[in-house]
């Protein structure tokens, strides 16, 4: 075939894996592969959770994006001005026009704290923090070190968010951290969420609400944060309820990358890219694909999801370029470790149809599911090595494929959702 | 799923009272569901939201979230809470005869 031009927007988890897999798949004379990102800092995002507690340093979890890409992948450190899907080309902020045969959108999400009234006003990064950015996580670490008692409120403003379990993990780890420091009895811990329970999926939600209760964390549900007063220490909901705080840890609203909104027909009102659930092709145009946090898919915005999607997406980009029928096999598979403090963690594994169930992963002799264990905590710690050395280069991880395994699961009938 | 009588019409509802067949809906049904949920009268602004929800549901297959309602319906989130107290997306979906908006994951 004639030499194809593949452009991948985003050099994070999804973009890097896709570029490396496609580079291995095509010879240099078959395809030219470009990756575009506005900066050259690849953050190992699961590490952000540990920064506020001094368990990780920002420098340890950031590496240059370009260095994670195989030889022969062209890296552009540029902002995307806009994509014109009708014309199969896009414009970079240095004036370069990049035409493509296939486009992969992997630009993740953008935090939008400014969309909540008062959130970035007085008090921001003084008593109101987010650990969802390296800078925010580091500022929160300093604030926690100074914190000697009072009300610590964790709030997630609205779904969707990256790693929906992370705010819960933050609450669990805060409980552990404050006990280690011997000041837990001087702190009221509150977890507030717009959901009607601790989590979205019923069985996991019950387990996690139980853990909050065990750790003496007050759970406030159906709380839709509308306004923050960072000076007076007040978080108000749209329906008029108020939560007082001395320290507020927020997970701000998420939207898609800014250029998506500037690109006609590419995204929805929130800047997420409508994407086919099984093939990862977009309905906007057959040569446009999307994966990871950037999509509107009804599964978690998480690295594991992106990893499983990357295998199907790479295959489908290749099939599309060869005029073959696409593989409709992505099942929504997601799994995540949930840190619960005291060197323990839970593991959950699920897909579009099956909610997180108890049992073991990936088979009956694997890691325990939905149950606290030290093994899961070690798994979570080890994962950073796997991420840089196996996942990003696009190597297969033995026993962990894109389809959700069922062998080790206890079959509890799924609740209708 | 059970059948029930709303505004003298037999409709199918789920355990929380959401219609399971959006085509069984009528404006009379909307008015009665609204009254039962503490909204004595549906104003023009209520109808704007309810009809936007239905349009959205029929074109995309899912009910819009509160955020997209605030961005696209022309009614700001604060006002949505005044019109439909507590949970605007949920309550407007119920009145509009479409399934309960699914929380994201």
Write the SSE topology.
The complex is a heterodimer of chains A (417) and B (105).
Chain A: E1 4-9, H1 13-25, E2 31-37, E3 41-43, E4 62-64, E5 73-77, E6 80-84, E7 89-92, E8 97-99, E9 102-105, E10 109-111, E11 128-129, H2 134-146, E12 150-156, H3 166-180, E13 187-192, H4 202-214, E14 217-220, E15 225-229, E16 234-237, E17 242-244, E18 247-251, E19 254-256, H5 258-262, E20 281-282, E21 285-290, H6 303-321, E22 334-341, E23 344-350, E24 359-361, E25 367-369, H7 374-391
Parallel strand pairs in A: 1-2, 1-9, 2-5, 9-21, 11-18, 12-13, 12-18, 13-14
Antiparallel strand pairs in A: 3-4, 6-7, 7-8, 10-19, 15-16, 16-17, 20-21, 22-23, 24-25
Helix pairs in contact in A: 1-6
Chain B: E1 2-6, E2 9-13, H1 27-36, H2 44-60, H3 66-72, H4 77-83, H5 88-95
Antiparallel strand pairs in B: 1-2
Features:
heterodimer; A: 417 residues; alpha/beta; FAD/NAD(P)-binding domain; 3 domains; six-stranded mixed sheet; five-stranded parallel sheet; 23% helix; B: 105 residues; mainly alpha; Arc Repressor Mutant, subunit A; two-stranded antiparallel sheet; 10% strand; globular
Describe this structure in words.
The complex is a heterodimer of chains A (417) and B (105). Chain A has 417 residues and is α/β, with parallel strands linked by helices. Chain A has helices spanning 13-25, 134-146, 166-180, 202-214, 258-262, 303-321, 374-391; strands at 4-9, 31-37, 41-43, 62-64, 73-77, 80-84, 89-92, 97-99, 102-105, 109-111, 128-129, 150-156, 187-192, 217-220, 225-229, 234-237, 242-244, 247-251, 254-256, 281-282, 285-290, 334-341, 344-350, 359-361, 367-369. In chain A, the strands form eight sheets. Chain A has a six-stranded mixed beta sheet, with helices on one face. In chain A, strands 11-18-12-13-14 form a five-stranded parallel beta sheet. In chain A, helix 1 packs parallel to helix 6 (303-321). Chain A is globular and about 70 Å long. Chain B has a single domain (2-95), classed as DsrC protein, C-terminal domain (Arc Repressor Mutant, subunit A). A two-stranded antiparallel sheet of chain B has the order 1-2. Chain B is globular. The chains are: A alpha/beta (417), B mainly alpha (105). At the A-B interface, loops of A face helix 3 and helix 4 of B.
């Amino acid at each position: 075939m004639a030499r194809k031009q593949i452009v991948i927007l985003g050099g994070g988890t999804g973009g890097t894996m896709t570029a490396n897999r496609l580079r291995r798949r095509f010879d240099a004379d078959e395809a030219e592969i470009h990756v575009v990102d506005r900066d050259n800092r690849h953050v190992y995002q699961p590490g952000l959770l540990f920064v506020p507690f001094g368990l990780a340093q920002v420098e340890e979890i950031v590496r240059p994006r370009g260095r994670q890409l195989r030889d022969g992948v062209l890296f552009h450190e540029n902002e995307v001005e806009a994509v014109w899907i009708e014309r199969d080309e896009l414009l970079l902020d240095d004036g370069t026009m990049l035409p493509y045969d296939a486009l992969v959108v992997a630009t993740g999400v953008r935090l939008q704290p400014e969309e909540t009234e008062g959130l970035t006003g007085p008090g921001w990064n003084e008593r109101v923090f987010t650990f969802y950015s390296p800078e925010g996580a580091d500022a929160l670490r300093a604030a926690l070190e100074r914190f000697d008692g009072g009300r610590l409120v964790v709030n997630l403003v609205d779904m969707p968010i990256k790693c929906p379990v992370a705010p819960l993990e933050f609450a669990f780890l805060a409980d552990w951290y404050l006990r280690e420091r011997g000041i837990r009895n001087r702190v009221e811990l509150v977890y507030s969420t717009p959901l009607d329970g601790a989590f979205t999926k019923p069985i996991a939600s019950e387990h996690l609400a139980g853990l909050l209760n065990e750790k003496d964390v007050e759970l406030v549900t159906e709380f839709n944060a509308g306004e923050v007063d960072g000076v007076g220490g007040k978080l108000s909901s749209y329906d008029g309820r108020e939560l007082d705080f001395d320290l507020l840890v927020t997970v701000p609203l998420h939207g898609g990358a800014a250029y998506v909104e500037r690109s006609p027909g590419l995204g929805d009102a929130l800047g997420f890219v409508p994407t086919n659930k099984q093939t990862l092709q977009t309905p906007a145009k057959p040569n446009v694909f999307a994966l990871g946090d950037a999509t509107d898919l009804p599964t978690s915005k998480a690295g594991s999801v992106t990893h499983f999607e990357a295998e199907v997406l790479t295959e489908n980009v290749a099939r599309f370029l060869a005029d073959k029928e696409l593989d409709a096999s992505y099942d929504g598979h997601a799994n995540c470790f949930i840190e619960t403090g005291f060197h323990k963690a839970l593991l959950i594994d699920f897909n579009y149809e099956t909610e997180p169930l108890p049992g073991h992963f990936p088979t009956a002799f694997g890691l325990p599911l939905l149950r606290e264990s030290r093994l899961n905590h070690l798994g979570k710690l080890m994962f950073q090595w796997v991420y840089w050395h196996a996942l990003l280069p696009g190597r297969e991880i033995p026993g962990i494929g894109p389809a959700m395994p069922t062998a080790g699961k206890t079959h509890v009938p799924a609740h209708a959702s | 799923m059970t059948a029930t009588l709303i505004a003298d019409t037999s409709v199918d509802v789920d355990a929380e009272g959401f219609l399971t067949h959006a085509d069984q809906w009528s404006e009379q049904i909307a008015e009665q569901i609204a009254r039962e949920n503490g909204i004595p009268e549906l104003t023009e602004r209520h109808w704007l939201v309810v009809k936007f929800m239905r349009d959205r549901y029929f074109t995309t297959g899912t009910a819009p979230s509160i955020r997209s309602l605030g961005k696209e319906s022309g009614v700001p989130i604060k006002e949505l809470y005044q019109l439909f107290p507590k949970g605007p997306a949920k309550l407007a979906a119920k009145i509009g005869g479409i399934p309960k908006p699914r929380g994201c994951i």
